[in-house]
Amino acid sequence: MTTHSRRAYEEIRRLILVREIPSDEPISERGLSERLGLGRTPIREALKDLERDGLIEVSPRRGTFVRRLSLADLRDIYEVRMGLEGIAAFLAAARGPTSQLLSFEEKFEKLLDDPSSELLTIQKLGWDFHDAIYEAAGNRELLRLNTGLRNQIGLTMELPRHHDHDRVRATVAEHLKILRAIKAMDPEGAQRAIYQHLSNALSAGAQIFSKFE
Q: Which domains does the chain have, with CATH numbers?
C-alpha cells in the first residue's frame, strides 16, 4: 500500500467509524477525493482494502456502501469478543492491574454519580477500557487479534445510540464490576464479569435489531 493509499484508508476508516459517512448513501470516489485532497487511485485502492476488512460492501448496480450489520453478524462479533476478551480479562487479573486500568475506577464512579453524562463520553470511555484490558493482559497475540477485530467492533458502536438510559448506566456498572475483579486479582471473576457484560450487550443489541426489522 502506498503512502497516499494508507492515508486514504485511515481517513475513510475514521469517517466511517465516527459515522460521517451515512450507511444509507452510496460512497462517492469523487467526493472522497475532493474531501481528502487525494487522487482517485489511492481512494479506489483504499476502498478495496476497506471492503476486504469488512467495513464497506459493494452492491451490484447500486454502488459502494458502509456495511450494515445483520443480527447474525452482531452475534458472530460478540461471540468472538466473549472468547478473546474473556481471556484478556483473565490474564489481566492473573498478572495484576496496570496503573492505566486502575485509573478507570474513579471515572466510572463519577459517571454513575452523574446521570446527565453524555452517551459519547460513556461510549468512548468504555472503548478505551476494553483496550486497556488487552494491554494489561500482556499478550501480543491477543493484541493483534483485537486490532483485527476493531473494525467490526466499530460498526457496532452505532447501537448504543438506541439504548435507553438505564442500559447505558448498567454498562458503566458492569465495567466497574470487571475492573474490581481484575483489581482483586480474581481471574475467574473477571472472566465471568466480562462474559456477562458482553452477553448483556448482545441481548440489548438484538432487541434494537428487532425494532428495525
A: 3-66 (1.10.10.10), 71-212 (1.20.120.530)
Q: Cα separations (Å) of 151 from 66, 103, 146, 156? A: 12, 26, 9, 9
What's the pTM? 0.80
* 37, three cell numbers: 485532497
- For the stretch 7-52, pLDDT in tens is 999 999 888 877 788 878 899 999 999 999 999 999 999 999 999 8
How is residue 159 annotated by DSSP?
Answer: G
H or E segment and range at residue 89: helix 71-95
Torsion of CA 13, 122, 96, 139, to 10 degrees: -10
SS3 157: coil
- Residue-level pLDDT at 162: 55
